[in-house]
Design brief:
The chain has helices at 6-21, 25-36, 46-58, 73-80, 95-107, 121-124, 146-156, 182-196; strands at 63-67, 87-92, 114-118, 136-139, 162-166, 200-209, 212-221. It contains 8 helices and 7 strands. The termini are far apart. 41% of the residues lie in helices and 20% in strands. The longest helix is centred in the first third of the chain and has 16 residues, at 6-21.
Length: 222
């Protein structure tokens, strides 16, 4: 198998977005508002956003937990994937990010479905223990805390809860033994936890899209 030219991969991604995702004024506005607010360009790719929407629909999620709101792009996708009366609880450590996200989420018409909790995940997650279990958990925050987030995903979920962990390949660095950066170490620790912790069964997929070479892990709480 020959190496995939990056330009060709990007062309395929654009083709798939045009073919299966399309354009959306509210989502485009959310990205533009995020850029204007100076937030980092690290939201999920359009194909991944629609995947989150599909997963929420497929598993019939009514309650979704998102760890890492950023500008609200993925939050909008998740909120659109749940029925009326459903709820997305999204955690964001940076108050400015949460403010930008709130504007975009409300403008997208899903504000009544989204509860933004501002604070570090380690502080906010314990406050959710008395709430109903979550049906889907999307983890897309600091990679150093992946094991902490996975532990809470199991504790705040139920048997059958779907857990999605973003950015688990990191341009191939996850498999590079010479890379001892804290982010890669956090990803590896999370993958080991998904392998060894009896609360989970999991797999992972590589992705090559508008955000580059990366991947997601998909796990079921058992």
């Amino acid at each position: 198998m020959t190496d995939v030219p990056l330009a060709a991969a990007h062309a395929v991604d654009r083709y798939l977005v045009e073919m299966l995702v399309g354009s959306d004024a509210a989502l485009d506005a959310a990205v533009a508002h995020q850029r204007a607010g100076g937030l980092p360009d690290i939201e999920v790719a359009p194909t991944s956003g629609k995947l989150l929407w599909l997963l929420a629909r497929i598993c019939g999620a009514r309650r979704v937990l998102e760890i890492g709101t950023l500008g609200g792009y993925s939050t909008i996708w998740l909120a659109r994937g749940i029925p009326d009366g459903g709820r997305v609880v999204t955690i964001e450590a940076e108050p400015r990010h949460a403010e930008v996200a709130r504007t975009s989420i409300d403008r997208a018409g899903v504000g009544e479905r989204v509860d933004i909790r501002v604070g570090r995940g380690a502080d906010v997650l314990p406050t959710l223990v008395d709430e109903e279990p979550f049906d889907l958990v999307f983890i897309d925050a600091d990679k150093e805390s992946n094991t902490l987030y996975l532990d809470w995903a199991a504790r705040l979920g139920r048997a059958g809860t779907l857990v999605v962990v973003d950015n688990v390949v990191r341009a191939g660095r996850v498999a590079d033994d010479a890379d001892d950066s804290t982010q890669v170490a956090g990803v590896r620790a999370g993958l080991r936890m998904l392998r060894d912790d009896p609360r989970f069964t999991a797999t992972a997929l590589q992705t090559l899209d508008a955000k580059g070479w990366d991947g997601i892990a998909l796990a079921l709480v058992v």
